[in-house]
Specification:
378 residues; 3-stranded parallel β-sheet; 9 strands; 6-stranded parallel β-sheet
Length: 378
């Protein structure tokens, strides 16, 4: 019999104990979408720009191929997506986020990520490569239901084949440290989207959640990184980047890009959301804004709050500039009605009821995201 549990085992045991002690939280909807809404939803490509489920695979052995239920009160933190529920809800694919511990923890890093960096020994570029390997092994094990794609055309082929279409996206340039060679290696290993920063400053940029850096834009390495990513055919993600950094990136980039998970500051004023001028500038450059589903982003509870943000972004930036960017499984507490992927048909129904055309809604559900990925990655 072994003696001490490893840190990973302790983390997993504690999380499982919390889950076991909690009650189920998904509220049953009062009315199901009409058959014609469900038919339209299912025939539309539905693609999410940011889901963090593989973080829980790494920490707890969460199996994407098995059905789960969000058990913590209000569906907090995780349990939001798996392949069986995605298939039922008509979610055809997503950018699966790679969360990496920084080599050096800085004061601005939020507490949960500080705790994670203390628990885990892996960090930086080494952890990026190990998570790309985890994603690849997961896709191979679940090959009948999932495909890890390297381009927009491969995403569309997987969707047409009835398999969940996954793209690898890294949250924060600290995951490639300060070496362009690391970006090239990660690209060869399957990385296709990269955010310049997460919750602490990287060698490339500074986060919008740390006011001390408001007057600092991209670093020289940040500009070099943008150029290298565009040369390689990688999607730039400006989520988390502060305003000066966004300005610098817009001036430097030549290809479309995404802000994978955010919302509208005009609807709810918080640091992670974009103001109307930023949304217009993203749209003018052919970019796409993914609207997140956490209460922190949206402000008010309920599905209508999410629809308010999507509706506002479409009116400000146009119907080709908005996408889904749920941030499910990213330690968020989703609004009611979107506790897991099963809420997606209600997003479709809600947007159509608000008077948006089927063409506009189809773009938001997935076409806009797939367009940008295809234009950049092929």
């Amino acid at each position: 019999m072994r003696g001490r549990l490893t840190r990973r085992e302790l983390l997993r045991a504690g999380a499982l104990a919390a889950l076991a002690a909690a009650c189920g939280s998904r509220r049953e909807p009062e009315q199901s979408p009409p058959d014609e809404i469900l038919a339209f939803h299912r025939e539309s490509p539905v693609f999410d720009l940011h889901i963090d489920t593989l973080l829980w695979t790494r920490l707890m052995g969460y199996d994407l191929g098995e059905r789960h239920t969000p058990l913590l009160p209000r569906a907090a933190f995780g349990g939001h997506m798996d392949l069986p529920r995605a298939a039922e809800a008509g979610l055809d694919g997503a950018v699966l986020g790679i969360v990496v511990n920084p080599q050096e923890v800085r004061p601005e890093l939020m507490f949960p990520l500080r705790a994670l960096a203390r628990i885990e020994s892996e960090r930086g570029f080494e952890q990026t490569l190990s998570q790309l390997d985890l994603m690849r092994r997961t896709a191979e094990r679940l090959s009948g239901a999932m495909r890890l794609a390297l381009s927009g055309s491969e995403l569309r082929a997987a969707i047409a084949d009835g398999r969940f279409a996954a793209l690898a996206g890294l949250e924060g340039a600290h995951g490639i440290e300060d070496e362009l060679d690391n970006v090239r290696v990660a690209h060869r290993q399957g990385l296709r989207m990269l955010g310049l920063v997460h919750f602490q400053s990287s060698a490339a940029a500074h986060p919008m959640t740390a006011p001390d850096f408001d007057d600092q834009g991209l670093t020289p390495f940040g500009f070099d990184l943008l150029a290298e990513m565009e040369s390689l055919g990688m999607v730039v993600d400006l989520a988390h980047v502060n305003r000066r950094g966004v300005d610098d990136a817009l001036a430097a980039m030549k290809r479309p890009f995404v802000v994978s998970h955010t919302a509208c500051r005009a609807v709810h004023d918080m640091a992670r959301n974009l103001d109307d001028d930023q949304i217009r500038r993203v749209a003018d450059r052919g970019g796409v804004v993914g609207i997140a589903m956490g209460r922190w982003f949206l402000g008010r509870p309920g599905l209508d709050s999410y629809l308010d943000h999507v509706d506002h972004a479409m009116r400000v930036g146009g119907t080709e500039a908005v996408a889904l960017g749920s941030d499910w499984d990213g330690a968020i507490t989703p609004v009611e009605g979107l506790e897991d992927v099963g809420g997606l048909p209600y997003v479709t129904w809600g947007l159509l009821e608000r008077g948006w055309s089927t063409d506009a809604v189809r773009k938001v559900l997935g076409e806009n995201a797939l367009r940008v990925i295809t234009e950049v990655c092929g």
